Amino acid sequence: MCQDRRVVDLVAEAATCNAGWCDAVCRSLSLPTRWSDEAWTVAERSPDGYPDAVTLSPKAEAHNVLQRVDGGVGCSVKDSFAVLDLEPWGFRVLFKATWIRRTAARAIGPVTLDWREVRSAAELDQWSSGHDLDIFGPALLDIGDLRFFHSGPGSGAGFALNRVGRVVGVSNIFVGQEDPIVVWSDLVAVAARTNPGMDLAGYELGEDLRSAAAVGFIQTGPLQVWML
C-alpha cells in the first residue's frame, strides 16, 4: 500500500485521470457510469480492454465497489493502489503495472514524426486499428479534454491524451513500425504543446514502462487489475 501522503495523492490523481478516460469511452457507448469518493464504476459490462471499476482511494472497500458492477464472468476491477484482495469473490489478478508521472517543467522538445490530430470518424477508425479494438466511436471526438494523435500513413504509431484536473493522462500508446523511444519522446512534446504546464500521468508495464522511464517518467506506485 502507498504510505507517503504525497505518493497517495499522485496515484489518486493518476487514477482519477484514467477513470475519466474509461468514463468517456463507456459513456460514448451509452453505458451507465457512476463516480464516488471510493471508485468510478459502470453498472453494465464494460467494453473489451476496459475495467468495470477503477478505485480512487486506498480506503475503497471491495464489497462497496463490487455491489455497483455487473459481477458476472468478465468483470474486471482496476485496483489503483494494489491493496484489494478480491480472491474471496473469485477474482484473479490479470496483470500488475506501475503508475508513471512526468513533470510539466521538463516536458519540452521537438518532435521527430509527423503527428496529426484525429478529427474525423474515418481517422478515428484508422487510429483504432492500432489496438485491434472496435470500441472508439465518433462521439469521443466531441469531448474537448480528450485528443487522439497518429503519426501518419506508413508509420502506424499513435496515442491518446485526456485532461482531468491538474494532469493529462497518456494512454493507448502504440508504436507501429517506429522506435518506441521516439514515440514516447514525441508524445511528451505533443502533450506539452497541446496542454502547456500540465503534468503527464499514466500506467505501463514491461517494455513500455522502460520506454517511459527513458524519456523522464518516474514511477509513483503499483496497481493491479483483477478479473473474474
Rounded average pLDDT:
92
Overall shape: it is: globular
- The domain tally reads 2
For the record, the CATH class of the largest domain is: Alpha Beta
Helix content: 25-40%
CATH topology title of the largest domain: Aminopeptidase
Count of separate DSSP helical elements = 5
CATH superfamily of the largest domain: Gcn5-related N-acetyltransferase (GNAT)
Sheet with most strands: strand arrangement: 1-2-3-4-11-5-10-9-8-7-6
Order of helices and strands: HEEEHEEEHEEEHEHE
What class do helices, strands and sheet pairing give? alpha+beta
Tally of DSSP β-strands: 11
Which architecture of the largest domain does the CATH hierarchy give at level 2? 3-Layer(aba) Sandwich
Largest sheet: 11 strands, mixed
Q: What Rg, in angstroms, do the CA atoms define?
A: 17 Å
How much of the sequence lies in strands comes to 25-35%
Low-confidence stretches: none
Descriptive account of the structure:
With 228 residues, the protein is α+β, with helices and mostly antiparallel strands. The chain folds into 2 domains: 5-98, no CATH class; 102-220, Aminopeptidase (3-Layer(aba) Sandwich), CATH 3.40.630. It is built from 5 helices and 11 strands. The chain has helices spanning 5-28, 62-66, 121-128, 180-194, 206-214, and strands spanning 33-35, 39-42, 53-55, 76-79, 92-102, 116-117, 146-150, 158-164, 167-174, 199-204, 218-227. Helix 4 links the parallel strand 9 (167-174) and strand 10.
